[in-house]
Design goal:
12 helices; 434 Repressor (Amino-terminal Domain); about 280 residues; 6 strands; 2 domains; six-stranded mixed β-sheet; about 55% helix; Endonuclease, Chain A
Length: about 280
Protein backbone atom coordinates (compact mmCIF):
# COMPACT_ATOMS: atom_id res chain seq x y z
CA UNK A 1 0.00 0.00 0.00
CA UNK A 2 1.52 3.34 -1.04
CA UNK A 3 1.71 6.39 1.20
CA UNK A 4 -1.23 8.07 -0.53
CA UNK A 5 -3.56 5.08 -0.30
CA UNK A 6 -2.50 4.43 3.30
CA UNK A 7 -3.34 8.02 4.24
CA UNK A 8 -6.72 7.69 2.52
CA UNK A 9 -7.37 4.54 4.55
CA UNK A 10 -6.55 6.36 7.79
CA UNK A 11 -8.92 9.16 6.71
CA UNK A 12 -11.63 6.54 6.25
CA UNK A 13 -10.81 5.22 9.74
CA UNK A 14 -11.23 8.75 11.12
CA UNK A 15 -14.49 9.43 9.28
CA UNK A 16 -15.92 6.09 10.47
CA UNK A 17 -14.84 6.85 14.05
CA UNK A 18 -16.58 10.24 13.93
CA UNK A 19 -19.77 8.72 12.55
CA UNK A 20 -19.85 5.89 15.13
CA UNK A 21 -18.98 8.23 18.01
CA UNK A 22 -21.74 10.69 17.15
CA UNK A 23 -24.23 7.85 16.66
CA UNK A 24 -23.39 6.66 20.19
CA UNK A 25 -24.00 10.16 21.54
CA UNK A 26 -20.45 10.85 22.78
CA UNK A 27 -18.47 14.04 22.46
CA UNK A 28 -14.78 13.71 21.63
CA UNK A 29 -13.94 14.47 25.25
CA UNK A 30 -16.41 11.89 26.58
CA UNK A 31 -15.03 9.16 24.35
CA UNK A 32 -11.49 10.18 25.23
CA UNK A 33 -12.15 9.72 28.95
CA UNK A 34 -13.48 6.22 28.33
CA UNK A 35 -10.51 5.09 26.22
CA UNK A 36 -7.88 6.89 28.35
CA UNK A 37 -6.75 9.57 25.86
CA UNK A 38 -7.62 13.24 25.58
CA UNK A 39 -10.57 14.57 23.60
CA UNK A 40 -8.02 16.35 21.43
CA UNK A 41 -6.50 12.99 20.54
CA UNK A 42 -9.91 11.69 19.44
CA UNK A 43 -10.23 14.75 17.21
CA UNK A 44 -6.81 14.07 15.71
CA UNK A 45 -7.74 10.43 15.09
CA UNK A 46 -10.89 11.58 13.29
CA UNK A 47 -8.89 14.01 11.13
CA UNK A 48 -6.21 11.35 10.40
CA UNK A 49 -3.58 13.67 11.88
CA UNK A 50 -2.60 11.13 14.51
CA UNK A 51 -2.89 7.34 14.22
CA UNK A 52 -4.19 5.41 17.27
CA UNK A 53 -2.20 2.61 18.80
CA UNK A 54 -3.77 -0.82 18.61
CA UNK A 55 -4.79 -0.92 22.29
CA UNK A 56 -6.64 2.40 21.86
CA UNK A 57 -8.50 1.04 18.82
CA UNK A 58 -9.50 -2.01 20.86
CA UNK A 59 -10.87 0.18 23.68
CA UNK A 60 -12.80 2.30 21.15
CA UNK A 61 -14.48 -0.89 19.89
CA UNK A 62 -15.39 -1.84 23.47
CA UNK A 63 -16.88 1.57 24.30
CA UNK A 64 -18.73 2.07 20.99
CA UNK A 65 -19.67 -1.64 20.76
CA UNK A 66 -18.46 -1.81 17.16
CA UNK A 67 -17.65 -5.53 17.08
CA UNK A 68 -13.90 -5.10 16.52
CA UNK A 69 -14.09 -2.96 13.35
CA UNK A 70 -11.55 -0.37 14.53
CA UNK A 71 -9.15 -3.04 15.80
CA UNK A 72 -9.31 -4.82 12.44
CA UNK A 73 -8.76 -1.62 10.45
CA UNK A 74 -5.89 -0.63 12.71
CA UNK A 75 -4.22 -4.05 12.39
CA UNK A 76 -4.58 -3.95 8.60
CA UNK A 77 -3.03 -0.50 8.33
CA UNK A 78 -0.20 -1.34 10.74
CA UNK A 79 0.59 -4.55 8.87
CA UNK A 80 0.71 -2.63 5.59
CA UNK A 81 3.28 -0.26 7.07
CA UNK A 82 6.95 -0.55 6.20
CA UNK A 83 7.74 -0.24 9.89
CA UNK A 84 7.51 -2.72 12.73
CA UNK A 85 4.09 -2.65 14.41
CA UNK A 86 5.47 -1.11 17.60
CA UNK A 87 7.26 1.66 15.66
CA UNK A 88 4.64 2.67 13.08
CA UNK A 89 2.97 5.21 15.39
CA UNK A 90 6.37 6.74 16.26
CA UNK A 91 7.18 7.30 12.58
CA UNK A 92 3.84 9.07 12.16
CA UNK A 93 4.46 11.29 15.20
CA UNK A 94 7.98 12.25 14.09
CA UNK A 95 6.47 13.92 11.03
CA UNK A 96 4.21 16.03 13.30
CA UNK A 97 6.73 16.92 16.01
CA UNK A 98 8.13 20.41 16.44
CA UNK A 99 10.99 19.08 18.58
CA UNK A 100 12.62 15.64 18.78
CA UNK A 101 15.19 14.73 21.43
CA UNK A 102 16.98 11.41 20.95
CA UNK A 103 19.46 9.50 23.09
CA UNK A 104 21.20 6.67 21.22
CA UNK A 105 23.34 4.33 23.36
CA UNK A 106 24.58 1.91 20.67
CA UNK A 107 23.21 2.62 17.18
CA UNK A 108 23.09 5.75 15.03
CA UNK A 109 19.50 7.11 15.24
CA UNK A 110 17.39 6.26 12.20
CA UNK A 111 16.93 9.90 11.20
CA UNK A 112 20.71 10.31 10.96
CA UNK A 113 21.54 7.06 9.16
CA UNK A 114 23.04 6.86 5.69
CA UNK A 115 21.99 4.04 3.36
CA UNK A 116 25.21 2.05 3.90
CA UNK A 117 24.80 2.05 7.67
CA UNK A 118 21.06 1.31 7.52
CA UNK A 119 21.73 -1.61 5.19
CA UNK A 120 24.38 -3.11 7.49
CA UNK A 121 22.11 -2.81 10.55
CA UNK A 122 19.19 -4.41 8.69
CA UNK A 123 21.22 -7.34 7.41
CA UNK A 124 22.80 -7.96 10.82
CA UNK A 125 19.33 -8.33 12.38
CA UNK A 126 17.85 -10.25 9.43
CA UNK A 127 20.57 -12.52 7.97
CA UNK A 128 18.20 -14.74 5.93
CA UNK A 129 16.06 -12.13 4.13
CA UNK A 130 16.34 -11.28 0.44
CA UNK A 131 17.70 -8.04 -1.00
CA UNK A 132 14.22 -6.67 -1.70
CA UNK A 133 13.35 -6.81 2.00
CA UNK A 134 16.58 -5.06 2.95
CA UNK A 135 16.14 -2.30 0.38
CA UNK A 136 12.54 -1.71 1.47
CA UNK A 137 13.69 -1.19 5.07
CA UNK A 138 16.55 1.09 3.99
CA UNK A 139 14.22 3.11 1.75
CA UNK A 140 11.74 3.57 4.60
CA UNK A 141 14.49 4.79 6.91
CA UNK A 142 15.81 7.31 4.39
CA UNK A 143 12.27 8.50 3.71
CA UNK A 144 11.79 9.18 7.43
CA UNK A 145 14.99 11.22 7.46
CA UNK A 146 13.52 13.72 4.98
CA UNK A 147 11.70 15.41 7.85
CA UNK A 148 15.07 17.00 8.74
CA UNK A 149 15.13 18.79 5.39
CA UNK A 150 13.55 22.13 4.59
CA UNK A 151 12.50 25.16 6.63
CA UNK A 152 9.70 23.39 8.54
CA UNK A 153 11.95 20.66 9.94
CA UNK A 154 11.64 19.90 13.65
CA UNK A 155 14.26 21.00 16.15
CA UNK A 156 16.35 17.84 16.47
CA UNK A 157 18.65 17.09 19.42
CA UNK A 158 20.71 13.90 19.33
CA UNK A 159 22.82 12.69 22.23
CA UNK A 160 25.01 9.79 21.15
CA UNK A 161 26.95 7.59 23.49
CA UNK A 162 30.56 7.18 22.38
CA UNK A 163 29.79 3.49 21.78
CA UNK A 164 27.88 4.59 18.66
CA UNK A 165 31.13 5.98 17.25
CA UNK A 166 33.36 3.08 18.25
CA UNK A 167 31.36 0.00 17.21
CA UNK A 168 32.10 -0.56 13.49
CA UNK A 169 28.90 -1.17 11.53
CA UNK A 170 29.59 -2.24 7.96
CA UNK A 171 32.91 -1.32 6.39
CA UNK A 172 35.42 1.17 7.88
CA UNK A 173 34.85 3.40 4.85
CA UNK A 174 31.10 3.29 5.41
CA UNK A 175 31.54 4.16 9.09
CA UNK A 176 33.78 7.08 8.14
CA UNK A 177 31.10 8.41 5.78
CA UNK A 178 28.36 7.87 8.39
CA UNK A 179 30.14 9.78 11.14
CA UNK A 180 31.19 12.54 8.71
CA UNK A 181 27.53 12.84 7.67
CA UNK A 182 26.41 13.37 11.28
CA UNK A 183 29.18 15.91 11.87
CA UNK A 184 28.22 17.77 8.70
CA UNK A 185 24.59 18.01 9.83
CA UNK A 186 25.86 19.49 13.09
CA UNK A 187 28.21 21.94 11.35
CA UNK A 188 25.34 23.07 9.13
CA UNK A 189 23.23 23.61 12.29
CA UNK A 190 20.49 21.35 10.95
CA UNK A 191 20.74 19.20 14.10
CA UNK A 192 22.34 19.60 17.52
CA UNK A 193 24.59 16.63 18.28
CA UNK A 194 26.47 15.89 21.49
CA UNK A 195 28.35 12.81 22.66
CA UNK A 196 28.46 11.16 26.09
CA UNK A 197 32.05 9.86 26.37
CA UNK A 198 32.78 6.37 27.67
CA UNK A 199 34.80 8.02 30.43
CA UNK A 200 31.59 9.54 31.83
CA UNK A 201 30.72 6.12 33.23
CA UNK A 202 27.17 5.45 34.40
CA UNK A 203 24.49 7.69 32.93
CA UNK A 204 20.78 8.40 33.30
CA UNK A 205 19.53 6.04 30.57
CA UNK A 206 21.53 2.87 31.12
CA UNK A 207 18.50 0.75 30.16
CA UNK A 208 18.59 1.91 26.53
CA UNK A 209 17.49 4.43 23.94
CA UNK A 210 15.14 7.30 24.73
CA UNK A 211 13.21 9.59 22.42
CA UNK A 212 11.11 12.60 23.40
CA UNK A 213 8.76 14.43 21.05
CA UNK A 214 6.98 17.76 21.50
CA UNK A 215 4.06 19.05 19.42
CA UNK A 216 2.30 22.33 18.80
CA UNK A 217 -1.16 21.13 19.81
CA UNK A 218 -0.71 17.86 21.70
CA UNK A 219 1.03 16.66 24.87
CA UNK A 220 4.66 15.52 24.65
CA UNK A 221 5.43 11.83 24.31
CA UNK A 222 8.30 9.55 25.29
CA UNK A 223 9.43 6.45 23.45
CA UNK A 224 11.78 3.67 24.53
CA UNK A 225 12.76 0.60 22.57
CA UNK A 226 14.46 -2.78 22.84
CA UNK A 227 15.47 -4.99 19.90
CA UNK A 228 12.00 -6.50 19.66
CA UNK A 229 9.50 -4.07 21.17
CA UNK A 230 8.85 -0.40 21.78
CA UNK A 231 6.88 1.60 24.33
CA UNK A 232 5.24 4.91 23.38
CA UNK A 233 3.76 6.82 26.33
CA UNK A 234 2.15 10.19 26.91
CA UNK A 235 1.37 9.80 30.61
CA UNK A 236 2.53 13.18 32.02
CA UNK A 237 4.28 11.66 35.04
CA UNK A 238 6.25 9.19 32.91
CA UNK A 239 7.14 11.82 30.30
CA UNK A 240 8.36 14.13 33.06
CA UNK A 241 10.69 11.42 34.36
CA UNK A 242 11.97 10.79 30.83
CA UNK A 243 12.60 14.51 30.34
CA UNK A 244 14.59 14.61 33.58
CA UNK A 245 16.70 11.67 32.40
CA UNK A 246 17.38 13.52 29.16
CA UNK A 247 18.42 16.63 31.07
CA UNK A 248 20.90 14.51 33.03
CA UNK A 249 22.27 13.08 29.77
CA UNK A 250 22.83 16.62 28.50
CA UNK A 251 24.91 17.34 31.59
CA UNK A 252 27.01 14.20 31.00
CA UNK A 253 27.67 14.98 27.34
CA UNK A 254 30.57 16.88 25.82
CA UNK A 255 29.94 20.36 24.44
CA UNK A 256 28.56 20.53 20.88
CA UNK A 257 31.92 21.68 19.50
CA UNK A 258 33.89 18.98 21.33
CA UNK A 259 31.32 16.40 20.22
CA UNK A 260 31.65 17.36 16.55
CA UNK A 261 35.43 17.23 16.86
CA UNK A 262 35.18 13.73 18.34
CA UNK A 263 32.89 12.60 15.52
CA UNK A 264 35.30 13.96 12.92
CA UNK A 265 38.28 12.39 14.67
CA UNK A 266 36.54 9.00 14.79
CA UNK A 267 35.68 9.31 11.09
CA UNK A 268 39.34 9.98 10.34
CA UNK A 269 40.34 6.91 12.36
CA UNK A 270 38.08 4.76 10.16
CA UNK A 271 39.57 6.34 7.03
CA UNK A 272 43.04 5.36 8.23
CA UNK A 273 41.80 1.78 8.69
CA UNK A 274 40.66 1.83 5.06
CA UNK A 275 43.96 3.17 3.78
CA UNK A 276 46.00 0.52 5.61
CA UNK A 277 44.00 -2.49 4.39
Amino acid sequence: MGNGSRQAAWEFFGAELKQRREAAGFTQAELGVRVFVSGGYIGQFEQAIRKPQLDVAERIDEVLQTDGIFERMCRKLINDSRYAEYFAAVAELEALARKICMFAPTVVPGLLQRAEYARAVTVAANPFVDDAYVEEKVSARLERARILEGPTRPEYWAILHENVLRVPVGSPAGMARQLAHIAALGRERRVLVTVVPCAAGAHASMAGMLQLMEFEDAPPTAYTETSFAGNLVDDPAVVKRAQRAYDLLRVAALSPEASLALLESAAEDYRRCTSTT
